UniProtKB/TrEMBL annotation:
This is Major facilitator superfamily (MFS) profile domain-containing protein. The chain crosses the membrane at residues 20-40, 75-94, 101-122, 128-148, 168-187, 193-216, 296-318, 330-353, 360-382, 402-424, 465-486. It comes from Aspergillus niger. Keywords: Magnesium, Membrane, Metal-binding, Transmembrane, Transmembrane helix, Transport. Residues 27-490 form the Major facilitator superfamily (MFS) profile domain. Substrate binds at G617, G618, L619, M620, R639. It is a multi-pass membrane protein. InterPro entries: MFS_dom (IPR020846), MFS_sugar_transport-like (IPR005828), MFS_Sugar_Transporters (IPR050360), MFS_trans_sf (IPR036259), RraA/RraA-like (IPR005493), RraA/RraA-like_sf (IPR036704), Sugar/inositol_transpt (IPR003663), Sugar_transporter_CS (IPR005829).
Length: 737
């Protein structure tokens, strides 16, 4: 287990060792097994279609060359077309059915397709239908499983867990090649069994998945979005190997619920219960927002760059290069190329991805692969290895260099364009848009796969060696693109992705203080609190968001804006009228509220009116500060002022209505964390603390957009009025103009 822990990214918070457990690994392996058929198809179908028994059974021997090419092309391309529609199909089902049932549905469809292909005999219609259905199943797998795995995984090992997708894909690719290698050497290729075995082998991994699905846990993110909190807690408890009441589990739930609440507040009206349709509509709306559009564009661009990175061209021409330099057993050498490419991918995505990250491996891989492509292109141009002519020793030596370049390309490609697009796509999107983002990635993969596989033969005929120069140029541009536009996402929590893609770059992933805020918060914070309050007044927010009589305990120059974590206090012995309306406490028995607050937030504490005791003291504040709280706002009293204002104990701003010498237990008790509270006449999801004017303001999350639209105009108008008054105008004149 220590070895496993070495291979993960820097943890986003102290993580119990139990989190890195075999329940998680076995769950991920069970899901990733489905992707074996994805890689298997890329390698077995081409060789299978060249077997004599296959050509005989499907009548290729009696067809014209054009008809045979059309049939072979259809069998290949219908799989990609089916995969495209399978990914698109998941747009409608991912939120409705959840992740687990979508995997089950895709698995069932694939099984039907594989059975049709295996039993097709000489029926072209059965083969076509089976290939389409198999493609639909694989398209569903690609659209759902990376997102599913990402939502199940802790941030520090999320890349490695999602990388199992690529590991099993490459394992399937190896099996697909070597099964035909064995069949050609050990089975009479004139028997129908020779092509039925490769077709039937597809049923093994999907059969394993079918047996595994009943034991899988549904995504906690999806469960929380559906209001199934207890099911989500149980799922997380199982996956993290921790009790339901453990702080790490509660923090996970808090992170996810906070993200979901903020996102739904942007798209679902307050007080409404989200339905599947409203959630899908909200996801579509959010996908068009700033900070989200760039993510969808990034995924589309990475899938395009992956498709044109040159792997298809290498697969197309490598046997010719091997033959030209005297390597007669081209299937063996092509297989060795596959071993290098797949083996390196398995090692990288199993052990290294959460150490090296995503951005720089992509850049390094792209540059190295571009050099290989340029060399191969130059060799093909000079030696023309496919013309059948005897080559001079110098060109034979160059051909050996070309073979080495092919092997080196396979190694370098393994940790770049080979798998990173889908891994990045699975981890950068917020929970509320995953019903769209997963299928979006799948659609782009299969769209460009279809385009490239259809284009490459024609491009070879028209361009010859130029195809390698084209791929080398694309790879060079890919490295440049990654340098400027691909952010490092290694080890980030899901809620931190919004900060990363909403800000200028990865250095902006930090909470709260001005200069480190995400764009929306920063735009609010640069304005004076009175302009924000005026905007909230225009929007009919109760009390204009202002929190009267709450002031900082010490002088500070730090202006802060951050989401709120609320803590509701109630009387120690609540009257029956209050007890009848209270929701049950969500603070686990035996735990203290200060131990379960959400990092990177301002803790807002609501004390019952008229209470004379302190709600918080130095001990609680120090603990919350240690957990990452950015400030505390107490709608009530505090004590231990000397500690609260001493940076040795507490180095975050503390605001309150007053002080007390009496501990909380004298009159009150903490009842709930994360429950809606009212502070004066205001409630809000973002809290702004402005020490310059000693004012605190609540900004409801669903009003942030409207505030941003209004506040700049209000602030500018106020500045103009001040200039007019200083210039000698009366107040009435300054206002009237």
């Amino acid at each position: 287990m220590k070895f496993m822990k070495f291979m993960h990214a820097k943890e986003d918070r102290p993580t119990p060792p139990e989190v890195y457990n075999f329940r998680l690994y076995l769950t991920v392996i069970g899901l990733a097994t489905a992707l074996i058929v994805f890689g298997y198809d890329t390698s077995f179908i081409g060789t299978t279609q060249t077997l004599p028994s296959y050509k005989r059974d499907f009548g290729l021997n009696t067809m014209t060359a054009k008809e045979a090419d059309a049939f072979t092309s259809n069998v290949t391309s219908l799989f990609s077309a089916g995969a495209f529609w399978g990914a698109l199909f998941m747009f409608m089902l991912l939120e409705l059915l959840g992740r687990r049932l979508c995997v089950l549905l895709a698995d069932f469809i694939f099984i039907v397709g594989a059975v049709l292909c295996t039993a097709a005999g000489g029926s072209k219609a059965m083969m076509y239908g089976g290939r389409v259905l198999s493609g639909v199943g694989v398209g569903g797998f690609v659209a759902v499983i990376p997102t599913y795995i990402s939502e199940l995984s802790p941030p520090a090992v999320r890349g490695r867990m999602t990388g199992c997708f690529e590991t099993f894909y490459n394992f399937g690719s190896l099996v697909g090649f070597w099964i035909n290698f064995g069949i050609v050497r050990h089975i009479d290729t004139n028997r129908s069994l020779a092509w039925r075995i490769p077709m039937g082998v597809q049923l093994i991994p999907v059969g394993i998945v079918a047996l595994t699905i009943p034991f899988l846990k549904e995504s906690p993110t999806w469960l929380l979005k559906k209001g199934r909190d207890q099911d989500a807690l149980r799922a997380l408890s199982f996956l993290r190997n921790l009790p339901v009441s453990h702080q790490y589990i509660l923090e996970d739930v808090g992170f996810i619920k906070s993200q979901i609440a903020i996102e739904q507040s942007l798209t679902v009206r307050r007080g409404q219960t989200p339905t599947t349709w409203s959630t899908f509509r909200a996801a579509a709306k959010e996908a068009t927002l700033k900070g989200m559009r760039n993510r969808f564009g990034l995924v589309a661009m990475l899938c395009l760059l992956q498709a044109w990175s040159g792997a298809v061209a290498i697969n197309y021409y490598s046997p010719t290069i091997f033959t030209s330099i005297g390597l007669d057993d081209t299937t063996l050498w092509t297989g060795i190329y596959g071993v290098i490419k797949s083996g390196a991918s398995i090692v990288y995505f199993s052990f290294l991805i959460d150490i090296t990250g995503r951005k720089w491996p992509w850049i390094t891989s792209s540059i190295g692969c571009a050099v290989c492509m340029y060399y191969i292109g130059a060799y093909v141009k000079i030696a023309n290895p496919g013309d059948g002519n005897t080559q001079p020793p110098s060109e034979v030596a160059a051909g050996k260099g070309g073979a080495a370049a092919i092997m080196l390309f396979g190694f370098l490609w393994s940790f770049g364009a080979n798998g990173l697009p889908l891994i990045i796509a699975s981890e950068i999107f917020s929970p509320s848009v995953r019903s769209i983002s997963g299928p979006w990635a799948g659609v782009n993969v299969w769209l460009w796969s279809f385009v490239v596989t259809k284009s490459i033969p024609s491009m070879f005929r028209a361009m010859g060696y130029g195809i390698y120069l084209w791929n080398g140029t694309v790879l060079t541009l890919s490295a440049v693109y990654a340098f400027f536009f691909v952010h490092e996402t290694k080890g980030l929590r899901m809620d931190q992705m919004d900060r990363l893609f909403g800000a200028v770059g990865e250095r902006e992933v930090a909470p709260s203080v001005v200069g480190e805020m995400v764009d929306g918060e920063k735009e609010v914070a640069v304005h004076m609190e009175h302009a924000i309050a005026d905007a909230l007044l225009e929007l009919s927010v109760p009390g204009a968001g202002f929190l009267p009589d709450i002031a900082p305990l010490a002088n500070t120059q730090t202006k802060i804006i951050a989401p709120a974590t609320t803590v509701l206090f109630i009387p120690r012995d609540p009257p029956p009228s209050l007890s009848a309306t209270l929701m049950p406490s969500n603070i686990p028995k035996g735990q203290i509220y200060a131990d379960i607050i959400i990092p990177s937030t301002i803790v807002v504490m609501s004390q019952p009116r008229g209470a004379s005791t302190a709600t918080m003291g130095g001990l609680m504040a120090a603990r919350m500060n240690k957990l990452g709280a950015q400030g505390v706002l107490v709608d009530g009293r505090v004590r231990d002022v000397a500690q609260l204002t001493d940076s040795r104990f507490v180095h975050m701003p503390v605001w309150s209505r007053g002080v007390s010498a009496v501990a909380t237990r004298g009159e009150c008790k903490a009842h709930a964390v994360g429950m809606e509270v009212w502070v004066g006449k205001s409630r809000g999801d973002l809290i702004m603390l402005d020490p310059e004017d000693r004012c605190a303001v609540c900004i409801p999350q669903d009003q942030v957009g409207a505030v941003l639209e209004m506040v700049e105009g209000i602030a500018t108008a106020d500045e103009v009025k001040m200039v007019r008054v200083l210039g000698g105008m009366s107040v009435q004149e300054a206002i009237s103009l």
